[in-house]
Amino acid sequence: MAIKSHGRLSISASAKPRALMQDRPNLKDAWTAQVHTLYPEMFPGTLGQSLLGKALDTGLWNLQIHNIRDHGLGKHKTVDDTPAGGGPGMVLRADVLSEALCAQPAIGPILYLSPRGRRFDQAMAKGLADGPGVTLLCGRFEGVDQRVLDAHDIFEVSLGDFVMTGGEIAAQALIDATVRLIPRVLGNAESSEDESFSNGLLEHPQYTRPTDWVGHKIPEILLSGHHGAIAKWRKDQSERLTKERRPDLWRAYEDPKEGQEQSDAHTIAAKGEMKD
C-alpha cells in the first residue's frame, strides 16, 4: 500500500512541556493527539519512548498538550469549585473547561477519560487510528461539570472498572494503543495483526531461545518447521486461553453477529458519532 506523503507546516512557538519543545517535524495531515490537562509536564511521558517516541520524533504522529489552568479564573487561576448539592472533593468548572476547549479547534472526536464511560477496546483504537486524531480531556478531583460534556458532545471512555487519580495515565494508554496501529509506527504491519484482540481472541503463548530453559522446553510443534501445523496450534491455544480467561470475548467470537455489533458500536463511538 502506498504511503501518503505529508507536506511540512511551519513550526511556531507555543507553551508546551519541555520534552515537547525539541525540534520535531510538524507534518500536515499526520495523526494528532490533542490533550487538555492540568498537568502538562506529565507528557509525553511513556509516549516519548521506544517505537512511539521515534515515530513522534519523525512526525508519523503529533502530540499537542494544552494546560487547562491557562484558562483558570482570577489571580490564582481557579479551575474548580465545590459540588452542587454538597459532597466531598471538588469539580472542574464548566466555564473554565469550555474556554480551554474553544481555544483550540478540536481534532477528531472529543473524549473524556472517565470510569463511567464506554469501555475502550481494540476496535475503538482502530476506529480512532483511521481518523485524523483525537482530543482528550483529562479530569481530576471528583470529575467535571456535566454541562460541559453535554455542550461539547464529549464522549466518555473508560479503560476499565477502576478509578484513577486523574485522566493523564489513561490518556497515554489510549494514545499508545491507537498510535501503534498507524502505518509505519511499528515497522512490521504483521506485528499488530497477530496479537490479542486483533481477531477477537487472546494471543497465543510466545517462545524464543533457549529451546530448553531450566527444564522448561519450547513445544516441539514450534520447532517442526511445519507452518500449517504451527498455525493450527497457535489458533487452538488462542481459543483455549480466550475461553478460559475471557468468556465475554469467547461468546462474541462464537456468535459473529454479537461480535460485529460490539465492534460497530465501538468504531462508531471512536469516530464521535454515538452519544449516550
Give descriptors for this structure.
disordered N terminus, Trp Operon Repressor, Chain A, two-stranded antiparallel ribbon, five-stranded parallel beta sheet, 2 domains, 276 residues, single chain, 31% helix, 8 helices
What is the name of the CATH topology of the largest domain? Alpha/beta knot
Shape: elongated
Q: What's the CATH H-level homologous superfamily of the largest domain?
A: SPOUT methyltransferase, trefoil knot domain
The residue-averaged pLDDT reads: 87
* CATH C-level name of the largest domain: Alpha Beta
CATH architectural name of the largest domain: 3-Layer(aba) Sandwich
Total of domains: 2
- Which strand order spans the largest sheet, edge to edge or round the barrel? 2-1-6-5-7
SS class: alpha/beta
What is the β-strand count? Answer: 9
Q: Helix tally?
A: 8
| Strand/helix succession | EHEEEHEHEHEHEEHHH
Task: Return residue spans where pLDDT drops below 50 for at least 5 consecutive residues.
Answer: 1-15
Describe the structure.
This protein is an alpha/beta fold and 276 residues long. It folds into two domains: 162 residues, SPOUT methyltransferase, trefoil knot domain (Alpha/beta knot); 82 residues, Orthogonal Bundle (Trp Operon Repressor, Chain A). It is 31% helix and 15% strand. It has eight helices and nine strands. A five-stranded parallel β-sheet has the order 2-1-6-5-7. Strands 3-4 form a two-stranded antiparallel ribbon. α3 packs across α5. It is elongated, with a radius of gyration of 22 Å. The N terminus is likely disordered.
